[in-house]
Amino acid sequence: MTASPFYKFENEGALAIITITRPEVMNSLHPAGHRAMDEAFNRFRDDDSLYVAILTGQGDKSFCAGSDLKTLSNDEDHDKPQTGFGGITNRTDLFKPVIAAINGYCLGGGLEMVAACDLAVASKTAKFGLPETRVGLAATGGGLLQRLPRQVPMKDAMWLILTGATIDADKALSMHLINKVVDPEDVLKSAKEMAHQILECAPLGVQASKQVVLQSLSEPDLEKAINANYEAVNRMMSSKDAIEGPRAFSEKRKPVWLGK
Fold first, then answer.
1. Whole-model pTM?
2. Which of 19, 38, 157, 242 has the fewest C-beta atoms lying within 10 Å of its C-beta?
């Protein structure tokens, strides 16, 4: 386990668990926190032995309540790393899956982080919202205004964005903001179960799948999207795992993935 003043990084085999550790301010983030989270996600990206990450917040009250407005009001440093809010919202080249384990309030930038994750499990007590318009701002800091209409129905996206309303976990599930709602004590457990389902699959196949899905969204022409060159697909096709998978199937055994 590695800890910084703002996050904790734990390894469980090929699974990384990244926890925001600012419960005293509802796990809200300030510039130093963004830079620390960028460091954590860089570590996950660069470690070839890690295939899936879970992102969560410390305690049982908040996943991330967005920006630490009190710190920002007293500090001239408003900068974020190029990777955006929490070191994740502006990443376009992270093809390892990230699962959000939402253990409480998920507001503003917190919701932007969830939208940047691939899957999400939430506590029944979680609350979601974009309060920016209620404090004279807009949710422009982490790509959410671009992501949300691509992830949920347009009317749902506009309602959440324009009203600044706060919704519960069941409503978030019905809007497809999240994948699953569980009891508060089961959030991390459920996220781990989801992670281990992914870990049963070939890691390079998972990464290739994520790259194709995300990069295809920017290509309006289906034929061009299908025929585009995807680096992760090339890596997968030339890997030892591409041989191991069919071999294990024919031998009626579980594959042993090498990630190469």
1. 0.94
2. 242
Provide the annotated active-site residues: 112, 132
- What are phi and psi for residue 94, nearest 5 degrees? -100, 105
In angstroms, what CA-CA distances link 201 with 76, 119, 166, 195, 257?
46, 16, 36, 10, 8
Please give the structure tokens belonging to residue 38: 């960028």
- Domain 2-199 is in which class? alpha beta
Enter the tokens of residue 55: 């992102």
CATH topology of domain 203-250: Lyase 2-enoyl-coa Hydratase; Chain  A, domain 2 (1.10.12)
Residue-wise pLDDT tens digits, 106-136: 999 999 999 999 999 999 999 999 998 888 8
Q: Which amino acid makes up residue 139?
A: A
Distance, in Å, from the CA atom of 99 to the CA atom of 202, rounded to the nearest integer, reads 17
pLDDT digits (tens, 9 = 90+) for 167-194: 999 999 999 999 999 999 999 999 999 9
Closest CA to 110 of 54, 52, 62, 150: 62
Q: Where are the domains of the chain?
A: 2-199, 203-250
